[in-house]
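Complex 140.
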Amino acid sequence: MKYVLIFIATLLVVIQFIPSKVINPKSDKNLEIKAPKEVMKILKNSCYDCHSNETNVPWYASIAPASFFIKRHVDLGRQWVNFSVWESYSAKEKDKKLGEIYKSVYNAMPLPDYIKMHKNAKLTQKQKEIIRTWTGKTPY
Ligand code: HEC
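Predicted structure with heme C bound:
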């Protein structure tokens, strides 16, 4: 039993050296999404940690193995939609992403794991409606 604990402790120390830090790349402020104030407020509060280059990384997120999951969410999230570089998307891409955003606020987003740690990121009915109206999409 003692050796198992020593093994686990050693493993926890060793994995800290695996690179898994979330980096906020510098991006041109002009490329950031331009949306009405009330929309920006919601995006910044509930989406920016995974869908922008302005991710806030809490202390526990820097510790492996949590950092592995968090980095993966941020990497994937930025790939899908990155509000920091929104204006670099083509009109077609924006349109497609707006459709996805419309759908996402009613089911998958923000991720449930994230809401557990960030209770005030959970979207209220009103906030969902604000986002939906802003996207200009209709159910399909
Ligand atoms: C904890 C990180 C996190 C937060 C916070 C978050 N997302 Fe995501 N988002 C992801 C990840 C990871 C994916 C990729 C999911 C996949 O590949 O299955 C994703 C995918 C998406 C997609 C692509 C389509 C889809 O539904 O898979 C959209 C649109 C989206 N997010 C919008 C939002 C919006 C809008 C918010 C805020 C209301 C938000 N997300 C908050 C991590 C996050």
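The pocket of heme C is lined by residues 46-47, 49-51, 73, 76-77, 80-81, 100-101, 104-105, 108-111, 114, 123 (CB under 6 Å).
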